[in-house]
Specification:
Elements: H1 10-27, E1 42-47, E2 53-57, E3 74-77, E4 82-89, E5 97-100, E6 103-106, E7 110-115, E8 128-131, E9 135-140
Antiparallel strand pairs: 1-4, 1-9, 2-3, 2-8, 4-7, 5-6, 7-8
């Protein structure tokens, strides 16, 4: 084969290179961004139930807030208040239950939460329980400038 007889076909060449590049991108999706780092997510709980709700300590998670006489073991919050969360568990796989009369409380209906800062009525940062239907989880990603 002589070099003089060699002809390039740019359309075929570009098409083949595109197919190879696309298939490599699908097989190795993170190859283009090997040095990216994960961005921290800020988690927030917002109280959504009308009339507010109550955060409860572990020994009282199943009680109605009116049944908890020690104010250090509960914390009432208003509708619309937002709290920065340091950890949250949805207790989805926990089957613990508490039955009192006709009332049945299930731990999976509650979030287990710790906060970045103490709650307004709390002097120490402890683990609290909150009824899932009374709050909404929000997430924010910080923007770097």
């Amino acid at each position: 084969m002589l070099i003089g007889n060699f002809r390039l076909h740019p359309q075929k060449l570009i098409c083949c290179l595109s197919l190879v590049g696309a298939s490599l991108g699908v097989m190795i999706p993170k190859a283009a961004y090997p040095q990216t780092t994960s961005v921290p997510v800020i988690r927030i709980l917002r109280v959504t139930v009308a009339g507010g709700t109550t955060f409860k300590l572990q020994e009282n998670w199943f009680r109605q807030s009116t049944e908890i006489t020690d104010n250090n073991k509960k914390c009432g919050v208003r509708t619309g208040e937002k709290f920065f969360v340091s950890s949250i568990s949805d207790n989805r796989n926990n089957n613990a239950e508490y039955r009192e009369g006709n009332r049945l409380e299930k731990i999976r209906d509650y979030y287990t939460v710790t906060f970045d800062r103490p709650l307004p009525c709390n002097r120490t940062n402890q683990t609290w329980y909150i009824f899932k239907n009374h709050v909404e989880q929000l997430q924010a990603i910080p923007i770097r400038r």
